[in-house]
Amino acid sequence: MAFIIVAAGLRILTGSFCMALGIFMLLLLVDFFIVQWDKKRRDEYESIFTQYDREKEKENEQENVEESANDDKQENE
Q1: For residue 2, which of 19, 27, 38 has the smallest C-alpha distance?
Q2: Tens of pLDDT along 64-77?
Q3: Residue 21: how many other CB atoms lie within 10 Å
Q4: Mind listing the pLDDT tens digit for each residue in 3-57?
Q5: Contacts for 22-29 with beta carbons within 8 Å, 24 or more apart?
Q6: How open is the CA angle 20-25-29, to the nearest 5 degrees?
Q7: What is the reported pTM?
Q8: What is the distance between the alpha carbons of residues 55 and 39, in angstroms, rounded to a whole number?
Q9: For residues 10 and 23, is the Cβ–Cβ distance under 8 A?
């Protein structure tokens, strides 16, 4: 719906179908690059936190192994 409104507005403002079409195509091109940039930014952001979460999981697993080893020692004594 928004694209139709923008296209009609451009047609009325420019008075030329070809000019309105060219501007509309440029707007679509800019939109495409913004979406690509945002996707790349989100992937990098998510990878940072995914990496952080993996490190925390490894630390927790290591602590659990150490605790179970200590519990085993105490049970044997």
Answers
A1: 27
A2: 777 776 666 666 65
A3: 14
A4: 788 888 888 988 888 998 888 899 899 999 999 999 988 887 777 777 777 888 8
A5: none
A6: 150
A7: 0.53
A8: 24
A9: yes
